[in-house]
Amino acid sequence: MSELILHHYPQSPFAEKTRLMFGLKGLSWHSVLIPPVMPKPDLTALTGGYRRTPVLQVGADIYCDTALIARRLEREKAVPALFPEGREAVAAALAQYGDQVLFHSSIAINFQPEAVAARFADLPEETMKSFVRDRRALFENGNVKRPSTDEALAQWPVLMSRLETQLERDGEFLLGEEPSIADLAWYHPLWFMASNAVVAVMLEDYPMIRAWMARIADMGQGASVKMEAAEAIRIAHDATPETLPEHGFVSSQGLTLDQSVTVSAVDYGCDPVAGTLVHEELEEIVIAREDERVGLVHVHFPRVGFRVDAA
Fold first, then answer.
1. CATH 3.40.30.110 domain residues, the chain
2. What is the CATH class of 4-80+223-310?
3. pLDDT digits over 26-46, tens only?
4. Has this prediction a pTM greater than 0.90?
5. Residue 156 and residue 151: Cα distance in Å, rounded?
6. What is the pLDDT of residues 218-233, one digit of tens each?
7. Beta bridge partners of 276
8. CB 232 within 8 A of CB 5
9. Residue 290 and residue 275: Cα distance in Å, rounded?
10. Less Cβ crowding at N or C end of the chain, within 10 Å?
11. For 253-259, which contacts have Cβ atoms below 8 Å and span 24 or more sequence positions?
C-alpha cells in the first residue's frame, strides 16, 4: 500500500477535518505543508490547478475535496467507520450540512474586521491583506451564497442551541456513541471559531458542545511524519496510478472514456482542471493528466459539488 501524503497547512479548517480522520482511524501519514494562499506551484503540479486545501496523495493518485478523501480513507481502513453501516445517508447529509452551512457561517463571523485583525495580529499587515485578497478570489465565479456577517451572527446561536440540545439528550456524538464523518464536519468550523479569541466567546455558553469538541480533539491526528514537497513530487513521478475498475463507467452527460474534459467545483474555488476522462462512477470522477514535474497522475474528484465538461 502506498504512503498517505496530506498536502495542507495548520490553520485550514478542512485540513483539521482530515487530520482528525487519520486520528479516528489510527492511520500513519506524511505531512507536506503548502502555502495558505496562491501561488502553490508544487500543489498545482500535482492537481493541475485545483487550489483548495487539503489534498490527499497516494502515489500517483491525487484526491481532491475532503468528501472524497473520507471515502478513500474508508477504503484504506474500514473500521472505525466514517460512514457507519446502515447510517451512510444520514452521516453524509450531516457532513454536507457542516461543511456548508456551519462552515460558511463561521467564515462570515471570522471575517469581521476585528476578528481578521486578531488572527493576523503577529504578522505583517501585507500578509493579512494578501490572505483577504486570496479568499475573495477563491469565492468568485461560484454558486455558493455566503451569509452576511449579520445573518451569520443571527443564526449562530440557533445552530449552537440545536447542537447543544442533541448532545445533552442523545449520546456523546452526533450519531450516538461512536464518532463519524458527521462529527468531524461539524467540528472543524467550531474549531476555527475557537482558534480566534475574538469570536471564541460565542462557544462559551455551550458546555455540552465544548465537551464534545474535547472528545473529538482527544482522538488525535494519527501518526504523522514531515515530508518535503520535492519528495512528494518525486513519489508521484516514480509511481503508477492505481488500476481503475474495468466496469462501472457511468457518464450522466454522455461523455466517453479518453475524452478531453475539464473538472471544476461549482460552489467556490472553481478553477478548472483539464485532463483526459479515465473513469466516472456513482461517487467519483477521475481524470488523467501529465506534468513535466510529476509525470502521469490520476486526479480524483467527488461527483457531488463538481462538474465535468467536454474540453
1. 4-80+223-310
2. alpha beta
3. 999 999 999 999 999 999 999
4. yes
5. 9
6. 999 999 999 999 999 9
7. 260, 288
8. yes
9. 8
10. N
11. 253/308, 253/309, 253/310, 255/280, 255/308, 255/310, 259/310, 259/311
